[in-house]
Amino acid sequence: MEITDETIEYVGILAQLELSDEEKKAAKKSMTEMLDYVNKLNELDTSDVEPMSHTFPVANVMREDVVTNGDDSENMLKNAPEKTENAYIVPQTF
Amino acid sequence: MSKDYEVVIGLEVHVELNTKTKIFCGCSTEFGGAPNSHVCPVCAGMPGSLPVLNKEVLHKAIAVGLATNCDITRDSKFDRKNYFYPDNPQNYQISQLYFPICRNGKVEIELKDGTKKFVRIHEIHMEEDAGKLVHDAATDETYVDFNRSGVPLIEIVSEPDMRSSEEVIAYLDTLRETIQYLGASDCKLNEGSMRADVNLSIREKGSEEFGTRTETKNLNSFKAIQRCIENEIGRQIDIIEEGGKVMQETRRWDDDKEYSYPMRSKEDAQDYRYFPDPDLVPIHVSEEMINEIKAEEPEFRPAKKIRYQEELGLPEYDADQITSEKHLTELLEGAVALGADAKKVSNWLMTETMRLMKETSTDADKLKFSAENLAKLVKLVESKEINNAVAKEVFEKAVFAENLDPEQYVKDNNMSTKADAGQLEAVVEKAIAANPKAVEDIKAGKSKAIGAIVGFVMKEMKGKCDPGEVNKLINQKLN
Amino acid sequence: MEKEKILALTAVELGKAIAAGETTSVEATKAYLDQMDAVEGAIHSYVTVEAESALAAAEAADAAIKAGTLTGPLAGVPIAVKDNMCIEGSRTSCSSHILENFVPTFTATAVKRLQDAGAVILGRTNMDEFAMGSTTETSYYGPTSNPWNLEHVPGGSSGGSAAAVAADECAMALGSDTGGSIRQPASFCGVTGIKPTYGRVSRYGLIAYGSSLDQIGPLGKDVTDCATVLEMISAHDEKDSTSADRDDIKFTEALVDDVKGLKIGLPRDYFGEGLDPEVKEAVLAAAETLRLKGAIVEEFDLGLVEYAIPAYYVIACAEASSNLERFDGVKYGFRTPDYADLHSMYKKTRSEGFGPEVKRRIMLGSFVLSSGYFDAYYVKALRVKHMIKDAFDKAFEKYDVILGPCAPTTALKKGQSLSDPLKMYLGDIYTVSVNLAGLPGISLPCGYDANGLPIGLQLLGQTFDEKTIIRAAYSFEQTFVDEKKKPDLTAVEGRA
Predict the structure, then answer these.
(1) What topology is assigned to C3-269+280-301+394-479 in CATH?
(2) Number of domains making up chain B
(3) How far is Cα B249 from Cα C353, in angstroms, rounded to an integer?
(4) Residue B430 sits in a domain of what CATH number?
(5) Which of C25, C45, C82, C467 is an active site residue?
(6) Contact A55/C437, CB-based, under 8 Å?
(7) Using an 8 Å Cβ cutoff, are C476 and C291 in contact?
(8) Helix-strand-coil percent breakdown of chain C, rounded to 5?
(9) pLDDT tens-digit profile of B96-133?
(10) Partner-chain contact A69 B142, CB within 8 Å
């Protein structure tokens, strides 16, 4: 599987990671190696096999529509790097 | 214009469900509240938090699907839609792509000229809403409030079946009405509980292929939608006529300036990398669940309209007006169930209620008064305890404004206009005696002259009598 | 009671001693804090030592025990918790720079159950950053050393927890296991560890790595300790949709020395090329020990063994790439000081905040989920996961328990693994398939290599059959003559 520079750029945007040129080179190499290794999975014929997400059958886990949480704004903001009294601050969005 | 063009429109409509709590946590969905006061580790994206589905969200989503003729997906799942944005606390939104809860529905719309057509629904899925971003121009900072994050939404995706802005409005109206009747949402465009994104493309009339479509967001009223559609049609035709290609993009509508502009930047890769959310388990919808939900379906507007005309004897116009708002139907039916005359109740809703709604800018679902009090008021007039003029006053000041018991209010304020029969007769005789000219005119055939005598009686009685009653008595005496 | 005596007791024995008044929680806590003072400089099991709050909790425990309101087996017992489980008021870093200053406002359900039972938390143990690794060398706060030989790694990602138990820096510890992260370090450090069936223990409050694979579990001095703690933390949690609702949680009832008739399967594909001969010998000897006790031991072909690792890495990295998106400098944790706009803030924060192994896995995970590759990689891996589960189901039709090694080698030397990630990933060969299939697994000591490094035995059971593997492990433990038991820390103590 050929991983191009464009792919590394693209995946970097998806993952919001900014890699240095060296890191990009290393990423290209390691991704290529990993994906070559992962391609091993193609040796298996899985055409008749359903993808399995959960290993034991469980479904319909739901809760009642009842308010259980109150005003916890102090705690919610406790760890914010930048904040006002009741909101998170972020740099301009557009 | 050298060619004949056809516009092809599809809509993505987001509806905020009116459950008490959010879709994946027990935080309140109540509107208002200080920023970040209805927030917990789950809807604020704290590390280690996990989502748990609100069963009421599933029920309402299925109810909407059944009411729009959809197939309900028996094995439904949630998927993560991954993208970075500050109103998205986990930087992924839990939505449904692969197995949406409803599919392949259709909604019948009726246009002004009476023609009907179906608009097909591609799918309906459940998802969580994002938080709110507020920009402060003074400090050039943006603030994030997660109160809205996690509020349950259903997204209704139509097929590109609409061909004009009229059809679009008819479709939205029908959806809104259906969902309001179900009690699943109040569907207000201007409050954001209903949001419509317009997907629009142009093609030559007769062509089988679709042109490139654009998506436009930020449409907060029907007028804005209409303006946007006309504007986008023109914009796309201009591009095509000039030999250019329409760009597939997402645009934002500015209703003040009446134009749209492209939204996304290159940083916003459109690759959402949807995959099934491993923190949530599949939803198996049983036949039983569907039947239960179907059994709770209310009488929808078309059937109700007919029933109001056939059973309650209301004229078509009244039936149409009252059924346009679910809450008004509840008031009508409630009052009628308590014995009030349907036509009279209808009148109160159509005239005084709607007048006051407009004057006070009150939406139907925010009306304070109960069907009980309305029924009482109607009965007070019927029994001639108060006349129409007084009734209007009682309605405006007591019933509409404060939902006070009108019977009690009339008693407390001594407002009864029921005249003592003997006293009234005496005053009528006095009035006749005091207005010889009017009596002459009446006898001469000028029936309108009775007004002066009635007026004299009303003055003497200080308004506490029924003009119709007075009229009758006068005529009796003169004949 | 003397410090040495206290440290020599297992967690359950210590609980009994405290209950009997032979020592107190405060005395025991001080003993452990003392040991930590002595050896932490060399071993570095902990990211954060919480001496003050531990002593306060110990005092409260002593009072409650005296009043008769705290009566469970762990009342007053000092424990350690891996640094990826949220504890209210306790800095939780996942051994990452990006959470260096993160203090949770709630406590993970499993931890809360132990706190409510009176356990005293000594501190937060070191780990591979965000649980991504097998050596604890990717920790932002420096590596942990294996108490048996400081030049060697303790394994990972729960290396700090394993080392702390081995070096008597706690009576027991909680760890987490996504691809072997409890079992492999337990094996490298000569302690016992259990990864429960997926869904047994609530994941609420565990900072997620691979959501469909993660489980919290105990590491302790013996099988009894681990079974006791597992019983205490296994419960249905309505805050975790993937939490199982079971009533078969009395694991201490399985602490029975009896394997007569127990059918043990030995996968031939586990004992082939790549397995260190000393490890092979010790593990096979363990099988023989069980056979002599009446178990029926049989070789069989499990199949698909070489596909477990690629399937695991695709699934784990994909889920992790999504789980770690929330670390963006907005709501908590590190935010880069220098940025031009929103997206540069995101990119710099994440690039500066995450270490290279985490970034590598995020990149891989984002790629395999991306459009065009989702079916070929992610969905394919989920199909292979299904096949692997089916292979185990087939095996468990014939066998009660599957026995094998935990890792192909004993603890590697520090600095050897990180340069060749693929090679490092291959070391997970015996553990990842268990996470993929959601099965329970226990790892316990069964020998030492020529250099005195511990070798671990792994026993796997069918879904929710913790009791059988606990019984098998307990039985082995009762018979196995452990010539060393504890690392010799005399050279280590006092080293800065």
Answers:
(1) Amidase signature (AS) enzymes (3.90.1300)
(2) 3
(3) 34
(4) 1.10.10.410
(5) C82
(6) yes
(7) no
(8) 45, 15, 45
(9) 999 999 999 999 999 999 999 999 999 999 999 999 99
(10) no
